[in-house]
Design goal:
Length: about 70
């Protein structure tokens, strides 16, 4: 039996923090996030793929088992 060192919500929180640091640091926020007139936002395809890559890298680094 494998025990994960982090819960899934913790992995997702870390991935989200890293994601926003990366898109801001590399000035790709506008490419990664679509902001609507009402102030809401969603990831573009580029942003979604980047987020999933970051989350996957974190899971691999800690050997997270789904």
């Amino acid at each position: 039996m494998t025990i994960n060192i982090l819960e899934l919500d913790q992995v997702c929180n870390i991935a989200s923090e890293v994601y926003f640091e990366v898109i801001n640091q590399f000035s790709v926020y506008d490419k990664a996030v679509k902001v609507f007139a009402d102030g809401s936002s969603e990831n573009t395809q580029y942003g979604e793929e980047l987020y999933m890559d970051i989350e996957g890298a974190i899971k691999r680094a800690i050997d997270y088992q789904d």
